[in-house]
Amino acid sequence: MTGPPSGIDVKTLNLQFVLTMIPKQNRFEPEKASILLVAVISAFLTPFMGSAINLALPAIGEDLNADAILLGWIATTYLLSSAIFLVPFGRVADIYGRKKVFLSGMIIFTVSSLLCYFAIGIYSLLFFRVLQGLGSAMIFATGLAIVTSVFEAKDRGKAFGITLASVYTGLSLGPFAGGMLTEFLGWRTIFLFPVIMGITGIYFVVRSIKSEWAESEGEPFDLRGSVIYAISLFLLIFGFSRLPSHEGFACVAAGLAGIVLFILYELSIPYPVMQLDLFRRNTVFAFSNLAALINYSATFAIAFILSLYLQYTEGFTASEAGLVLVSQPVIMAMVSPIAGRMSDRIEPRLLATTGMSVTALGLLLLVFLESMNIPLIIATLIIIGMGLGLFTSPNSNAIMSAVNKQYYGIAAGTMGTMRLLGQIFSMGLIMLILSLFIGREPVTAENLPNFLQSIRVAFLLFFGLCFLGIFASYARGK
After folding, report:
1. What SS3 state is found at 2?
2. What's the maximum distance between 2 C-alpha atoms anywhere in the chain?
3. What does residue 378 show for φ and ψ, rounded to 5 degrees?
4. What is the pLDDT of residues 239-294, one digit of tens each?
5. At 189, is the secondary structure helix, strand, or coil?
6. Is 2.40.50.140 the CATH classification of the domain at 274-478?
7. Domain range annotation of the chain
8. Calpha distance 442→62 (Å, rounded)
9. Burial code of 1-18, b = ≥16 C-beta within 10 A, e = fewer?
10. How far apart, in whole angstroms, are the C-alpha atoms of residue 321 and residue 332?
11. Which single residue of 86, 212, 317, 379 has CA 20 to 30 Å from 253?
Protein backbone atom coordinates (compact mmCIF):
# COMPACT_ATOMS: atom_id res chain seq x y z
CA MET A 1 0.00 0.00 0.00
CA THR A 2 1.48 3.34 -1.04
CA GLY A 3 1.30 6.62 0.81
CA PRO A 4 -0.12 9.89 -0.46
CA PRO A 5 1.28 11.28 -3.71
CA SER A 6 4.38 13.40 -3.37
CA GLY A 7 3.68 17.06 -2.68
CA ILE A 8 0.31 16.57 -1.04
CA ASP A 9 0.09 17.57 2.61
CA VAL A 10 -1.33 14.83 4.84
CA LYS A 11 -3.44 17.26 6.83
CA THR A 12 -4.97 18.44 3.52
CA LEU A 13 -6.04 14.85 2.87
CA ASN A 14 -7.51 14.70 6.35
CA LEU A 15 -9.92 17.48 5.40
CA GLN A 16 -11.15 16.06 2.10
CA PHE A 17 -14.06 14.19 3.62
CA VAL A 18 -15.09 17.25 5.62
CA LEU A 19 -14.87 19.48 2.57
CA THR A 20 -16.97 17.14 0.43
CA MET A 21 -19.74 17.33 3.04
CA ILE A 22 -20.00 21.11 2.61
CA PRO A 23 -21.70 22.61 -0.48
CA LYS A 24 -19.22 24.13 -2.93
CA GLN A 25 -20.50 27.67 -2.37
CA ASN A 26 -19.81 27.28 1.38
CA ARG A 27 -16.30 25.80 1.11
CA PHE A 28 -13.08 27.42 2.27
CA GLU A 29 -9.43 26.70 1.56
CA PRO A 30 -8.00 23.81 3.64
CA GLU A 31 -6.32 25.95 6.29
CA LYS A 32 -9.47 27.88 7.07
CA ALA A 33 -11.56 24.72 6.79
CA SER A 34 -9.47 23.05 9.48
CA ILE A 35 -9.97 26.00 11.81
CA LEU A 36 -13.69 25.97 11.06
CA LEU A 37 -13.80 22.23 11.74
CA VAL A 38 -12.28 22.80 15.18
CA ALA A 39 -14.86 25.52 15.86
CA VAL A 40 -17.66 23.19 14.73
CA ILE A 41 -16.44 20.39 17.01
CA SER A 42 -16.19 22.70 20.02
CA ALA A 43 -19.59 24.27 19.31
CA PHE A 44 -21.15 20.80 19.06
CA LEU A 45 -19.80 19.38 22.33
CA THR A 46 -21.52 21.56 24.94
CA PRO A 47 -25.11 21.40 23.60
CA PHE A 48 -24.70 17.68 22.93
CA MET A 49 -23.55 17.01 26.49
CA GLY A 50 -26.24 19.26 27.94
CA SER A 51 -29.12 17.64 26.05
CA ALA A 52 -27.79 14.05 26.25
CA ILE A 53 -27.18 14.06 30.00
CA ASN A 54 -30.79 15.05 30.71
CA LEU A 55 -31.98 11.64 29.46
CA ALA A 56 -29.54 9.84 31.76
CA LEU A 57 -30.51 11.60 34.99
CA PRO A 58 -32.95 8.96 36.30
CA ALA A 59 -30.39 6.22 35.56
CA ILE A 60 -27.64 8.23 37.27
CA GLY A 61 -29.91 8.83 40.26
CA GLU A 62 -30.60 5.12 40.61
CA ASP A 63 -26.99 4.06 40.08
CA LEU A 64 -25.41 6.68 42.37
CA ASN A 65 -28.31 7.00 44.84
CA ALA A 66 -28.90 10.71 44.13
CA ASP A 67 -32.06 12.71 44.86
CA ALA A 68 -33.74 15.17 42.46
CA ILE A 69 -31.78 18.17 43.78
CA LEU A 70 -28.40 16.48 43.28
CA LEU A 71 -29.48 15.38 39.81
CA GLY A 72 -30.22 19.02 39.01
CA TRP A 73 -26.72 19.93 40.13
CA ILE A 74 -25.25 17.57 37.50
CA ALA A 75 -26.35 20.12 34.91
CA THR A 76 -25.95 23.19 37.08
CA THR A 77 -22.34 22.61 38.25
CA TYR A 78 -21.25 22.37 34.63
CA LEU A 79 -23.06 25.55 33.64
CA LEU A 80 -21.97 27.42 36.75
CA SER A 81 -18.32 26.53 36.21
CA SER A 82 -18.57 27.58 32.56
CA ALA A 83 -20.17 30.91 33.45
CA ILE A 84 -17.66 31.70 36.21
CA PHE A 85 -14.63 31.11 33.99
CA LEU A 86 -15.92 32.25 30.58
CA VAL A 87 -15.34 35.98 30.98
CA PRO A 88 -11.95 35.74 32.78
CA PHE A 89 -10.53 33.26 30.27
CA GLY A 90 -11.75 35.40 27.39
CA ARG A 91 -9.60 38.18 28.79
CA VAL A 92 -6.69 35.80 29.47
CA ALA A 93 -6.87 34.70 25.82
CA ASP A 94 -6.73 38.31 24.58
CA ILE A 95 -3.60 38.89 26.66
CA TYR A 96 -1.68 35.60 26.35
CA GLY A 97 -3.04 34.04 23.16
CA ARG A 98 -6.34 32.52 22.05
CA LYS A 99 -4.83 29.38 20.59
CA LYS A 100 -3.06 28.55 23.87
CA VAL A 101 -6.26 28.94 25.88
CA PHE A 102 -8.37 27.09 23.31
CA LEU A 103 -6.00 24.11 23.16
CA SER A 104 -5.75 23.96 26.96
CA GLY A 105 -9.54 24.02 27.16
CA MET A 106 -9.89 21.16 24.70
CA ILE A 107 -7.43 19.07 26.72
CA ILE A 108 -9.15 19.80 30.05
CA PHE A 109 -12.60 19.08 28.57
CA THR A 110 -11.46 15.78 27.06
CA VAL A 111 -9.69 14.53 30.18
CA SER A 112 -12.55 15.55 32.49
CA SER A 113 -15.06 13.78 30.22
CA LEU A 114 -13.03 10.59 30.62
CA LEU A 115 -12.95 11.10 34.39
CA CYS A 116 -16.76 11.45 34.40
CA TYR A 117 -16.93 8.00 32.84
CA PHE A 118 -15.01 6.54 35.81
CA ALA A 119 -16.86 8.54 38.53
CA ILE A 120 -17.46 6.33 41.58
CA GLY A 121 -20.10 8.51 43.28
CA ILE A 122 -22.36 11.48 42.77
CA TYR A 123 -19.94 13.96 44.36
CA SER A 124 -16.97 12.82 42.28
CA LEU A 125 -19.17 13.15 39.19
CA LEU A 126 -20.12 16.70 40.22
CA PHE A 127 -16.43 17.59 40.69
CA PHE A 128 -15.51 16.27 37.25
CA ARG A 129 -18.42 18.20 35.78
CA VAL A 130 -16.89 21.35 37.27
CA LEU A 131 -13.67 20.54 35.40
CA GLN A 132 -15.71 19.98 32.24
CA GLY A 133 -17.24 23.41 32.70
CA LEU A 134 -13.79 24.96 33.11
CA GLY A 135 -12.62 23.40 29.85
CA SER A 136 -15.82 24.46 28.11
CA ALA A 137 -15.34 28.07 29.24
CA MET A 138 -11.82 28.13 27.80
CA ILE A 139 -13.14 26.74 24.50
CA PHE A 140 -16.09 29.08 24.14
CA ALA A 141 -14.13 32.14 25.27
CA THR A 142 -11.82 31.69 22.28
CA GLY A 143 -13.46 29.58 19.55
CA LEU A 144 -15.73 32.21 18.02
CA ALA A 145 -13.06 34.89 18.49
CA ILE A 146 -10.59 32.76 16.48
CA VAL A 147 -13.15 32.33 13.69
CA THR A 148 -13.74 36.09 13.72
CA SER A 149 -9.98 36.72 13.48
CA VAL A 150 -9.41 34.28 10.61
CA PHE A 151 -12.37 34.87 8.31
CA GLU A 152 -12.84 38.10 6.40
CA ALA A 153 -16.08 40.02 6.73
CA LYS A 154 -17.44 38.58 3.46
CA ASP A 155 -17.09 35.01 4.76
CA ARG A 156 -17.66 35.56 8.46
CA GLY A 157 -21.44 35.21 8.36
CA LYS A 158 -21.12 31.98 6.40
CA ALA A 159 -18.66 30.62 8.97
CA PHE A 160 -20.93 31.66 11.83
CA GLY A 161 -23.85 29.95 10.10
CA ILE A 162 -21.99 26.64 9.84
CA THR A 163 -20.91 26.91 13.48
CA LEU A 164 -24.46 27.68 14.62
CA ALA A 165 -25.74 24.68 12.66
CA SER A 166 -23.37 22.47 14.67
CA VAL A 167 -24.89 23.81 17.91
CA TYR A 168 -28.37 22.74 16.87
CA THR A 169 -27.02 19.44 15.54
CA GLY A 170 -25.68 18.78 19.02
CA LEU A 171 -29.03 19.70 20.54
CA SER A 172 -30.82 17.43 18.06
CA LEU A 173 -28.58 14.39 18.45
CA GLY A 174 -28.18 14.74 22.22
CA PRO A 175 -31.60 13.47 23.38
CA PHE A 176 -31.66 10.55 20.92
CA ALA A 177 -28.03 9.52 21.49
CA GLY A 178 -28.29 10.07 25.24
CA GLY A 179 -31.41 7.92 25.49
CA MET A 180 -30.04 5.11 23.32
CA LEU A 181 -26.65 5.02 25.05
CA THR A 182 -28.23 5.08 28.51
CA GLU A 183 -30.69 2.30 27.74
CA PHE A 184 -28.40 -0.09 25.88
CA LEU A 185 -24.84 0.70 27.04
CA GLY A 186 -25.28 2.60 30.31
CA TRP A 187 -25.19 6.32 31.17
CA ARG A 188 -21.41 6.40 31.50
CA THR A 189 -20.93 5.86 27.77
CA ILE A 190 -22.40 9.32 27.12
CA PHE A 191 -19.09 10.77 28.32
CA LEU A 192 -17.00 8.70 25.88
CA PHE A 193 -18.30 10.51 22.79
CA PRO A 194 -16.87 13.91 23.89
CA VAL A 195 -13.56 12.15 24.50
CA ILE A 196 -13.42 11.02 20.87
CA MET A 197 -14.52 14.42 19.58
CA GLY A 198 -12.07 16.18 21.90
CA ILE A 199 -9.11 14.13 20.71
CA THR A 200 -10.08 14.94 17.12
CA GLY A 201 -10.27 18.65 17.93
CA ILE A 202 -6.90 18.61 19.72
CA TYR A 203 -5.32 16.93 16.69
CA PHE A 204 -6.51 19.61 14.29
CA VAL A 205 -5.52 22.44 16.64
CA VAL A 206 -1.96 21.12 16.94
CA ARG A 207 -1.57 20.24 13.26
CA SER A 208 -3.47 23.02 11.53
CA ILE A 209 -3.63 26.22 13.61
CA LYS A 210 -0.22 27.84 13.39
CA SER A 211 -1.15 31.45 14.14
CA GLU A 212 -1.66 33.05 17.52
CA TRP A 213 -3.88 36.00 18.45
CA ALA A 214 -3.14 38.22 21.45
CA GLU A 215 -4.31 41.74 20.58
CA SER A 216 -4.15 42.84 24.24
CA GLU A 217 -0.67 41.47 24.90
CA GLY A 218 1.05 43.43 27.66
CA GLU A 219 -2.14 44.72 29.25
CA PRO A 220 -2.83 43.79 32.90
CA PHE A 221 -5.31 41.09 33.81
CA ASP A 222 -8.15 42.18 36.07
CA LEU A 223 -7.74 39.52 38.76
CA ARG A 224 -9.71 41.41 41.41
CA GLY A 225 -12.72 41.88 39.14
CA SER A 226 -12.57 38.22 38.09
CA VAL A 227 -12.62 37.06 41.71
CA ILE A 228 -15.55 39.34 42.59
CA TYR A 229 -17.43 38.06 39.54
CA ALA A 230 -16.78 34.39 40.32
CA ILE A 231 -17.71 34.61 44.01
CA SER A 232 -20.84 36.66 43.31
CA LEU A 233 -22.08 34.28 40.67
CA PHE A 234 -21.43 31.24 42.85
CA LEU A 235 -23.26 32.75 45.83
CA LEU A 236 -26.22 33.70 43.65
CA ILE A 237 -26.69 30.26 42.12
CA PHE A 238 -25.88 28.34 45.30
CA GLY A 239 -28.36 30.52 47.16
CA PHE A 240 -31.12 29.60 44.71
CA SER A 241 -30.51 25.93 45.42
CA ARG A 242 -30.83 26.49 49.21
CA LEU A 243 -34.04 28.55 49.19
CA PRO A 244 -36.30 28.98 51.13
CA SER A 245 -33.83 28.54 54.01
CA HIS A 246 -32.24 31.56 55.73
CA GLU A 247 -28.91 30.44 54.30
CA GLY A 248 -30.37 30.55 50.78
CA PHE A 249 -31.73 34.08 51.16
CA ALA A 250 -28.42 35.27 52.64
CA CYS A 251 -26.42 33.81 49.73
CA VAL A 252 -28.75 35.31 47.10
CA ALA A 253 -28.54 38.73 48.78
CA ALA A 254 -24.75 38.51 48.99
CA GLY A 255 -24.54 37.42 45.35
CA LEU A 256 -26.67 40.33 44.15
CA ALA A 257 -24.61 42.76 46.21
CA GLY A 258 -21.47 41.27 44.70
CA ILE A 259 -22.79 41.74 41.16
CA VAL A 260 -23.48 45.42 41.90
CA LEU A 261 -19.96 45.77 43.34
CA PHE A 262 -18.53 44.06 40.26
CA ILE A 263 -20.32 46.45 37.90
CA LEU A 264 -19.18 49.53 39.81
CA TYR A 265 -15.60 48.26 39.99
CA GLU A 266 -15.43 47.35 36.28
CA LEU A 267 -16.62 50.82 35.28
CA SER A 268 -13.88 52.44 37.36
CA ILE A 269 -10.76 50.75 35.92
CA PRO A 270 -9.03 51.19 32.54
CA TYR A 271 -8.63 47.47 31.72
CA PRO A 272 -11.75 45.64 32.96
CA VAL A 273 -12.29 41.90 32.58
CA MET A 274 -15.77 42.63 31.12
CA GLN A 275 -16.49 45.57 28.83
CA LEU A 276 -19.65 47.16 30.28
CA ASP A 277 -19.65 50.44 28.35
CA LEU A 278 -21.45 48.74 25.47
CA PHE A 279 -24.45 48.17 27.73
CA ARG A 280 -24.56 51.82 28.76
CA ARG A 281 -24.13 53.36 25.32
CA ASN A 282 -25.81 50.90 22.95
CA THR A 283 -29.54 50.27 23.45
CA VAL A 284 -29.80 47.62 20.72
CA PHE A 285 -26.86 45.69 22.17
CA ALA A 286 -28.15 45.94 25.75
CA PHE A 287 -31.76 44.93 25.10
CA SER A 288 -30.80 42.20 22.63
CA ASN A 289 -28.60 40.61 25.29
CA LEU A 290 -31.34 41.05 27.89
CA ALA A 291 -33.78 39.30 25.56
CA ALA A 292 -31.32 36.44 25.11
CA LEU A 293 -30.88 36.13 28.88
CA ILE A 294 -34.66 35.97 29.41
CA ASN A 295 -35.16 33.51 26.54
CA TYR A 296 -32.58 31.02 27.84
CA SER A 297 -33.86 31.45 31.40
CA ALA A 298 -37.38 30.53 30.31
CA THR A 299 -36.54 27.58 28.05
CA PHE A 300 -33.34 25.75 29.02
CA ALA A 301 -34.93 23.62 31.77
CA ILE A 302 -37.67 22.29 29.45
CA ALA A 303 -35.68 19.18 28.52
CA PHE A 304 -34.78 18.52 32.18
CA ILE A 305 -38.42 18.76 33.30
CA LEU A 306 -39.87 16.71 30.45
CA SER A 307 -37.18 14.03 30.77
CA LEU A 308 -38.17 13.45 34.39
CA TYR A 309 -41.89 13.70 33.59
CA LEU A 310 -41.85 11.20 30.72
CA GLN A 311 -39.79 8.64 32.62
CA TYR A 312 -41.32 9.00 36.09
CA THR A 313 -44.99 9.52 35.21
CA GLU A 314 -45.42 8.02 31.73
CA GLY A 315 -43.07 5.07 32.23
CA PHE A 316 -40.96 5.88 29.18
CA THR A 317 -37.49 4.46 28.74
CA ALA A 318 -34.63 6.90 28.28
CA SER A 319 -34.50 6.28 24.53
CA GLU A 320 -38.29 6.72 24.16
CA ALA A 321 -38.14 10.01 26.07
CA GLY A 322 -35.26 11.11 23.84
CA LEU A 323 -37.33 10.50 20.70
CA VAL A 324 -40.02 12.82 22.08
CA LEU A 325 -37.62 15.56 23.16
CA VAL A 326 -35.65 15.57 19.91
CA SER A 327 -38.58 17.22 18.10
CA GLN A 328 -37.77 20.66 19.54
CA PRO A 329 -34.09 21.01 18.49
CA VAL A 330 -34.78 19.46 15.08
CA ILE A 331 -37.28 22.24 14.34
CA MET A 332 -34.82 24.79 15.73
CA ALA A 333 -32.13 23.51 13.35
CA MET A 334 -34.54 23.80 10.41
CA VAL A 335 -35.97 27.23 11.22
CA SER A 336 -32.87 29.04 12.51
CA PRO A 337 -30.89 29.26 9.21
CA ILE A 338 -34.02 30.48 7.41
CA ALA A 339 -34.66 33.08 10.11
CA GLY A 340 -31.03 34.17 9.93
CA ARG A 341 -31.26 34.82 6.20
CA MET A 342 -34.59 36.61 6.67
CA SER A 343 -33.01 38.89 9.29
CA ASP A 344 -30.74 40.32 6.56
CA ARG A 345 -33.86 41.66 4.83
CA ILE A 346 -36.40 42.06 7.65
CA GLU A 347 -35.68 44.01 10.82
CA PRO A 348 -34.25 41.49 13.34
CA ARG A 349 -36.26 43.07 16.14
CA LEU A 350 -39.54 42.02 14.50
CA LEU A 351 -38.44 38.46 13.79
CA ALA A 352 -36.93 37.94 17.24
CA THR A 353 -39.98 39.39 18.98
CA THR A 354 -42.24 37.11 16.94
CA GLY A 355 -40.08 34.16 17.96
CA MET A 356 -40.28 35.14 21.63
CA SER A 357 -44.09 35.37 21.34
CA VAL A 358 -44.37 31.91 19.76
CA THR A 359 -42.11 30.47 22.48
CA ALA A 360 -44.29 32.02 25.19
CA LEU A 361 -47.35 30.37 23.64
CA GLY A 362 -45.65 26.97 23.77
CA LEU A 363 -44.68 27.45 27.43
CA LEU A 364 -48.26 28.40 28.30
CA LEU A 365 -49.48 25.15 26.73
CA LEU A 366 -47.00 23.15 28.83
CA VAL A 367 -48.67 24.46 31.99
CA PHE A 368 -51.35 21.87 31.16
CA LEU A 369 -48.78 19.09 30.54
CA GLU A 370 -50.52 16.58 32.81
CA SER A 371 -53.63 16.54 30.59
CA MET A 372 -51.68 16.22 27.32
CA ASN A 373 -51.15 13.06 25.29
CA ILE A 374 -47.80 12.38 23.64
CA PRO A 375 -48.71 13.74 20.16
CA LEU A 376 -49.84 16.98 21.77
CA ILE A 377 -46.60 17.21 23.77
CA ILE A 378 -44.61 16.76 20.55
CA ALA A 379 -46.74 19.40 18.80
CA THR A 380 -46.07 21.81 21.67
CA LEU A 381 -42.33 21.15 21.47
CA ILE A 382 -42.49 21.87 17.74
CA ILE A 383 -44.15 25.22 18.48
CA ILE A 384 -41.39 26.05 21.00
CA GLY A 385 -38.73 24.94 18.51
CA MET A 386 -40.18 27.26 15.88
CA GLY A 387 -40.21 30.13 18.36
CA LEU A 388 -36.62 29.55 19.44
CA GLY A 389 -35.48 29.21 15.83
CA LEU A 390 -37.18 32.49 14.91
CA PHE A 391 -35.64 34.22 17.92
CA THR A 392 -32.04 33.01 18.14
CA SER A 393 -30.55 33.80 14.73
CA PRO A 394 -32.13 37.27 14.30
CA ASN A 395 -31.26 38.16 17.89
CA SER A 396 -27.64 37.10 17.34
CA ASN A 397 -27.59 39.10 14.11
CA ALA A 398 -28.89 42.15 16.00
CA ILE A 399 -26.18 41.82 18.66
CA MET A 400 -23.30 41.40 16.21
CA SER A 401 -24.61 44.14 13.89
CA ALA A 402 -24.95 46.61 16.78
CA VAL A 403 -21.17 46.89 17.36
CA ASN A 404 -18.15 47.93 15.36
CA LYS A 405 -15.63 45.40 14.07
CA GLN A 406 -13.23 45.91 16.95
CA TYR A 407 -15.93 44.73 19.36
CA TYR A 408 -16.91 41.49 17.57
CA GLY A 409 -15.03 39.37 20.10
CA ILE A 410 -16.57 41.21 23.04
CA ALA A 411 -20.04 40.89 21.53
CA ALA A 412 -19.60 37.16 20.95
CA GLY A 413 -18.29 36.65 24.48
CA THR A 414 -21.21 38.61 25.91
CA MET A 415 -23.66 36.45 23.99
CA GLY A 416 -22.04 33.35 25.44
CA THR A 417 -22.26 34.79 28.94
CA MET A 418 -25.94 35.62 28.55
CA ARG A 419 -26.59 32.10 27.31
CA LEU A 420 -24.84 30.48 30.26
CA LEU A 421 -26.36 32.82 32.85
CA GLY A 422 -29.80 32.15 31.40
CA GLN A 423 -29.25 28.41 31.50
CA ILE A 424 -28.03 28.57 35.09
CA PHE A 425 -30.96 30.74 36.13
CA SER A 426 -33.37 28.34 34.44
CA MET A 427 -31.92 25.34 36.30
CA GLY A 428 -31.77 27.38 39.52
CA LEU A 429 -35.48 28.15 39.28
CA ILE A 430 -36.50 24.53 38.70
CA MET A 431 -34.22 23.35 41.53
CA LEU A 432 -35.83 25.92 43.83
CA ILE A 433 -39.31 24.78 42.84
CA LEU A 434 -38.42 21.10 43.31
CA SER A 435 -36.94 21.80 46.74
CA LEU A 436 -40.13 23.63 47.77
CA PHE A 437 -42.52 20.90 46.61
CA ILE A 438 -40.69 17.59 47.16
CA GLY A 439 -37.54 18.50 49.09
CA ARG A 440 -34.43 16.34 48.78
CA GLU A 441 -36.39 13.18 48.07
CA PRO A 442 -36.39 10.97 44.96
CA VAL A 443 -39.55 11.12 42.86
CA THR A 444 -41.81 8.28 44.03
CA ALA A 445 -45.48 7.31 43.81
CA GLU A 446 -46.06 8.99 47.19
CA ASN A 447 -44.80 12.43 46.17
CA LEU A 448 -45.81 12.23 42.50
CA PRO A 449 -48.72 14.71 42.98
CA ASN A 450 -46.28 17.24 44.44
CA PHE A 451 -43.90 16.62 41.54
CA LEU A 452 -46.68 17.32 39.02
CA GLN A 453 -47.64 20.47 40.90
CA SER A 454 -44.02 21.66 40.74
CA ILE A 455 -44.06 21.17 36.96
CA ARG A 456 -47.19 23.33 36.60
CA VAL A 457 -45.67 26.09 38.70
CA ALA A 458 -42.37 25.93 36.77
CA PHE A 459 -43.95 26.27 33.34
CA LEU A 460 -46.25 29.05 34.54
CA LEU A 461 -43.21 30.94 35.82
CA PHE A 462 -41.29 30.32 32.59
CA PHE A 463 -44.27 31.60 30.58
CA GLY A 464 -44.28 34.78 32.66
CA LEU A 465 -40.57 35.30 32.00
CA CYS A 466 -40.96 34.77 28.27
CA PHE A 467 -43.95 37.13 28.17
CA LEU A 468 -41.77 39.86 29.71
CA GLY A 469 -39.09 38.98 27.17
CA ILE A 470 -41.45 39.98 24.35
CA PHE A 471 -41.30 43.60 25.55
CA ALA A 472 -37.52 43.48 26.12
CA SER A 473 -37.04 42.19 22.57
CA TYR A 474 -39.24 44.86 21.01
CA ALA A 475 -37.82 47.69 23.12
CA ARG A 476 -34.32 47.31 21.64
CA GLY A 477 -35.19 49.65 18.77
CA LYS A 478 -33.98 49.40 15.18
Report:
1. coil
2. 72
3. -65, -40
4. 766 766 788 889 889 999 999 999 999 888 888 877 787 788 888 888 888 999 99
5. helix
6. no
7. 26-209, 222-272, 274-478
8. 9
9. eeeeeeeeeeebebbeeb
10. 18
11. 86
